[in-house]
Amino acid sequence: AQSVAQPEDQVNVAEGNPLTVKCTYSVSGNPYLFWYVQYPNRGLQFLLKYITGDNLVKGSYGFEAEFNKSQTSFHLKKPSALVSDSALYFCAVAWGAAGNKLTFGGGTRVLVKP
Amino acid sequence: DAGVIQSPRHEVTEMGQEVTLRCKPISGHNSLFWYRQTMMRGLELLIYFNNNVPIDDSGMPEDRFSAKMPNASFSTLKIQPSEPRDSAVYFCASSLARRVYNEQFFGPGTRLTVL
User: Would you state the torsion angle of the CA atoms of residues B78, B82, B85, B87, taken in this order, to the nearest 10 degrees?
Assistant: First the structure.
């Protein structure tokens, strides 16, 4: 079975400091990993994905994520956080015949303080 | 592009009533997904369609839930009869499944409250 774990319910960071949101996965076969962000009263927005290739994936809004196969992790990072980055972040793994099924982690709330 | 459109945005109903949630996917997308989000269970995939055909409904919780996609631009999720435990935010998402592992685009959601 495919699963994703986000060990932190909330991450607090000061504006301008680096931001890291952790994600670990468990899959049978190759991992196909996604990060989404959810702002209050909005749907999820795609940030980035890892399918194959470079372990460092760059995405929207200055975010990037590092795929680490040996640690089964896919942590989301941003070098300098903004107050507007405060939101709920979800890691997900794609699976199924066409990779259409997403299993989401529980989400991590990020609070960036000015 | 208008994005994925869902209606209504909020629905309050009484236990036992029928509830119909509507979704218009992004034009040209050929896959459509219905999700449910609750505090207790997080985000769950209920059902997805490919080219208007239901492919996997294993996430539909009970027979009270049904979903249809009569054409490429419209889908409904129906709950009959509704129960208080159905209270949640229901999201519709669409994607272009021309190649695998494409990202999904989510609508704003429908917040359902069953009293």
Answer: 60
